[in-house]
């Protein structure tokens, strides 16, 4: 009897062990994030959006709208503005990775706007140790873009942006590899409307931005070019004023990379057949074909396609249009990268300048994004003119 009991116990432990191992293997097989080059283009640059869970496609227009949705610029109250943002990135891993972003805009009349931005992402210094000698490299990426946006009606606008991308991540200057270059474009739209909730006039807006529609990028020494992070972002925002001095904004964004999913090797598939399939179904796909292919190429069907959507929700409380408190949450499915984190931040605005800060609280263990901070300094050029006694330019945006 004791032997039978011991046998059953051992069998149970074995079955549970096999089940856990199978589950772990299935989980590993399910992990399949979308792969792109120049991933720094996907990093939210400014502190206001970063404090609300990386949200910005439908929020109120500000100087940082170039990254989120340049179509918002014609709705900006100020005639012109400038901002500079700084993010010390992945501080839990290294101390010298930084993102710097500068953006600005100018409204031409009441219905048109020109804008531009420059972002520089430094990967710090990397020591390479080889058998004969040692090499120190300083990889970096930058992008410069300009945009034009126009109001097509009192409530609706559209915009287009053109971008040059440069990525120098060469790991050995003696090899055939070289810096990668690419060109891309953005197409965006934005609508702002008003409605009454009781006796309060509230606003509701939605926005859409498809960015980085462009060429692939290659680093030399390889015939295969990589996809840049072409991206679809759709969002909504509602602002409710409690009284003359207090208002609350609630926002939600959905984000999806329009890049084909990298093929996974099928069970029993020969290595040579797998490499041929990668070449045909991934590297030989054009960027435009890749956009359409990205909506239906996930190995596990529609369920995995929905897993590729990243969700963000955020709120912003503002007092007297001067002081703001913000919070948000960003969710990425565990099979597609598992970036899950809460964010918080605050901002203070004067007539001439504004300052914003944001902080990340990761909800997943050992997440290198934990404790990431962002800082943004903004300048209202109309306010600067008034400060120096010059006549303010242009009309204030009417509602």
3D architecture notes:
The structure is a single chain. The chain is 18% helix and 42% strand. By secondary structure, it is of the alpha+beta class. Strands 1-2-3-6-7-8-9-10-11-12-13-14-15-16 form a 14-stranded antiparallel barrel. Strands 4-5 form a two-stranded antiparallel ribbon. The longest helix has 29 residues, at 2-30.
Question: How would the blueprint of this fold be written?
Answer:
Layout: H1 2-30, H2 47-51, H3 65-68, E1 80-88, E2 98-108, E3 112-122, E4 126-129, E5 134-137, E6 140-151, E7 156-168, E8 180-197, E9 200-214, E10 231-241, E11 246-257, H4 271-283, H5 287-293, H6 302-307, E12 310-319, E13 323-331, E14 341-349, E15 353-362, E16 373-380, H7 381-387
Antiparallel strand pairs: 1-2, 1-16, 2-3, 3-6, 4-5, 6-7, 7-8, 8-9, 9-10, 10-11, 11-12, 12-13, 13-14, 14-15, 15-16
Explain briefly what this protein structure is.
The protein is an alpha+beta fold. The protein has helices at residues 2-30, 47-51, 65-68, 271-283, 287-293, 302-307, 381-387, and strands at residues 80-88, 98-108, 112-122, 126-129, 134-137, 140-151, 156-168, 180-197, 200-214, 231-241, 246-257, 310-319, 323-331, 341-349, 353-362, 373-380. The strands form 2 sheets. It has a 14-stranded antiparallel β-barrel with strand order 1-2-3-6-7-8-9-10-11-12-13-14-15-16. Strands 4-5 form a two-stranded antiparallel sheet.
């Amino acid at each position: 009897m004791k032997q039978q009991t011991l046998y059953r116990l051992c069998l149970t432990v074995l079955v549970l062990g096999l089940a856990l191992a199978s589950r772990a293997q299935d989980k590993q097989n399910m992990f399949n994030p979308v792969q792109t080059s120049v991933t720094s283009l996907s990093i939210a640059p400014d502190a206001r959006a970063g404090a609300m869970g990386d949200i910005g496609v439908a929020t109120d227009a500000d100087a940082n709208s170039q990254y989120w949705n340049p179509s918002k610029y014609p709705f900006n109250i100020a005639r012109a503005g400038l901002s500079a943002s700084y993010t010390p990135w992945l501080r839990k891993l290294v101390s010298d990775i930084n993102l710097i972003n500068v953006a600005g805009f100018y409204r031409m009349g009441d219905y048109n706007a020109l804008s531009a931005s420059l972002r520089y992402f430094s990967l710090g210094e990397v020591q390479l140790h080889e058998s004969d000698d040692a090499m120190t490299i300083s990889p970096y990426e930058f992008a410069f873009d300009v945009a034009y946006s126009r109001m097509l009606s009192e409530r609706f606008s559209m915009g287009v942006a053109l971008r040059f991308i440069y990525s120098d991540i060469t790991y050995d200057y003696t090899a055939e590899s070289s810096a990668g270059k690419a060109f891309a474009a953005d197409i965006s739209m934005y609508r702002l409307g008003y409605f009454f909730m009781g006796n309060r006039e509230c606003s509701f807006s939605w926005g859409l931005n498809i960015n980085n529609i462009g060429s692939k990028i290659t680093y030399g020494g390889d015939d295969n070019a990589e996809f840049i992070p072409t991206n679809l972002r759709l969002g909504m925002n509602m602002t409710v004023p409690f009284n003359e001095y207090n208002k609350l904004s609630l926002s939600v964004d959905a984000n999806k990379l329009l890049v084909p999913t990298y093929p996974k090797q099928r069970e029993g598939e020969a290595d040579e057949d797998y490499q041929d399939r990668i070449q045909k179904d991934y590297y030989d796909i054009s960027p435009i074909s890749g956009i359409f292919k990205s909506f239906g190429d996930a190995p596990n069907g529609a369920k995995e396609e929905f897993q590729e959507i990243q969700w963000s929700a955020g709120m912003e409380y503002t007092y007297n249009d001067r002081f703001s408190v913000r919070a948000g949450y960003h969710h990425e499915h565990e099979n597609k990268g598992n970036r899950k984190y809460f964010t918080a931040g605050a901002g203070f605005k004067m007539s001439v300048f504004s300052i914003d800060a944001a902080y990340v609280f990761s909800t997943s263990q050992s997440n290198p994004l934990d404790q990431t901070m962002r800082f943004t300094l903004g300048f209202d050029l109309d306010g600067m003119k008034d400060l120096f006694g010059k006549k303010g330019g242009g009309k204030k945006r009417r509602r």
